[in-house]
Amino acid sequence: MSEEHQEVAATEEGPVPVLKWDLGLFEQIVRSFRFPPEWDARYPAQGQTAADAPPGYITLYEDFFLQGNFRLPATNFLGSILHHYNFHISQMSPPGMVRVRHFEFLCHSHGIEPSVDKFRAF
């Protein structure tokens, strides 16, 4: 593995543990999910935690994309769900994201517009 693709080791310093990041996986996600350059996706510096996102940025975990089927830009339906439950996107777990996305896919596959009320009924 080249130096630029080395992982940063996890440590337990401070209230938020420093995470183990992988530059290669970050670049793969940015490329394969086609993040536009204007989004200015940033790989964290060595020693940074999820809480260290610069102003105007949020931290998204690889599991969101790889296990939770999350895509950017987010859909209006996802925004409605987050608003209804008063969640921030960073509070969603990959399994929760799967449930929301699965419901949305099922609605669209049956020609139904997904809504919070329908989601709550199921």
Descriptive account of the structure:
This protein has 122 residues and is mainly alpha-helical. The protein has two domains: 1-58, no CATH class; 60-122, no CATH class. The chain has five helices and no strands. It starts with 22 loop residues before the first helix and ends with a helix.
SSE arrangement:
Elements lengths: L22 H10 L29 H5 L9 H9 L9 H16 L6 H6 L1
Main traits of this protein?
mainly alpha, globular, 38% helix, 2 domains, 122 residues
Residue-averaged pLDDT, rounded?
A: 84
Distance between the termini: 46 Å
Q: What's the total count of β strands?
A: 0
Number of domains: 2
**Morphology:** globular
Q: Please compute the radius of gyration using only Cα atoms.
A: 17 Å
Structural class: mainly alpha
Helix content: 25-40%
Q: Tell me the major beta sheet.
A: none
- Which strand-content bin applies to the residues? under 5%
Count of runs of 4 or more consecutive helical residues? 5
Poorly predicted tracts of residues: 1-11
- The run of helices and strands is HHHHH
